Structure formats: C-alpha cells, structure tokens
Fold this sequence. Notes:
alpha+beta
Amino acid sequence: MSSYPISIKSFGLNAILIEWPEEVNETILNDILQFTAHLKNTILVQEEWELVPAYNSLTIIQRRKVLDYTKISEQLRELYRTKENVKLEQKFLWRLPVCYDLDFGIDLQDVAFQLNSSVEEVIAIHTKHTYTVYGIGFLPGFMYLGGLPANLEVPRKISPRLKVEKGSVGLAGKQTGIYPQESPGGWNIIGSCSVSMFNVNVSPPCFVSVGDRIQFYQISRAEYDLHKIESEVGIYQLEKIEIDA
C-alpha cells in the first residue's frame, strides 16, 4: 500500500482535516479511501463520526462531542503509519444518460466554437471517456469528476447564471459534472441528465460514492422524457457495473 506525507489539522471544535499531497491523482484517492475504510474498521463508530473523503483530503467529524485534538491526531498518525492492506468498498461504473439537444445544451454550440470543433465531436468525446468521482459537494449530490480530456477543456463562464436547471451537465476547466438541483452556476451547459442525482426520500440519498466512475451516453429527447416518467413511478433502473478493487 502506498504511503504519503500527510498533515493533520484541527478543523473547528468537532473536526479534523487530514491532507495528502495536493495532486489530482487516483493513487492518492485510493490511499485516502483505504485509510477511511481502516478507520471505520478500528476506532471510528459510524453513528458518532462522519468521514468525508475528497481529492487529497479526509475530513473527520465527531457528531457528539468536542475533540481532543492532540490525542486524536496522535492516534491518526499511528494508524496511518501502521495501516495494513484494506479492501476498498465495492466501487461501480455508473452509465448515466444525457440528452444533448440544444434546448438543454444551451452552451453546446458555443463550447464547440471555443474548441474549434463541431457539436457532434464534443458529444462524441464527452461520452467516450470515463470519469472518476473525486468529491461530492458544493450542492448535495454534486459530483466533481476528474478525467476530462484536454480537448474538452473550456473556462468557466465570465458571468455565472443565476439559474441553472436541475440535471444540467456542464464543463468548466478540467471538470465535468451534473447539477443535482436548480442553482446558480458558471459552468458551460452541454446537456441534461435524466437521472436524479440526489433524493432525500431514499437511503443513501446520493447513490454515487467517491471513487466510483461515471460514463455518459447519449439519449434522444423521447428517451429523456420516458426516463422522467419511469423515475416518477419508481421503475427506472440505473445502469451500473462493478469495478474490480
């Protein structure tokens, strides 16, 4: 198992922040996820603690009491030094449908122009690649996806929109992602995903986990409308594939 120089910081009265080297690196992400699993198997009782892995950090939150920073940081360093190979939780490749009609992809033509490409080429590249979930945040269920090819990189919009529709699929810098609910936003919108990414009425409310992978595939407007109906009546089936640990 890989090991890295980590830093441990107090993060308020009830939390600890552990940081790894500041890189977008899947090996670092896996080390974070393995250490997270190790902590769950040793000192952290799930009901009392919340663990939030992302990119190059792990935030550990104590739900019930103020932390003794000196004591817990020493424990964490020792556990990291002595950690053994820990089997990662099962990860999945989720295939998510996207309708790239211009009614949804309101920036798609502009993105194609910026990239000196065609709309069809942008869609083909976007659906060809798989993306790693490096973090979930900003909004509940908002995935930060790494692995965007360089020929799809476009800057954030200079003037963010006050309203981006739920399900909007966007590009910004080296990232792509889905808006899980209506919100302001400055990403370039190229389509809409017909799958709801966050639902407070189910457990877990977000079906995707950090470390999972995402692949988009193109659907027609008719298929998009059908998926919406299927979701409303509870018969839509997500497409997922197990990833070898």
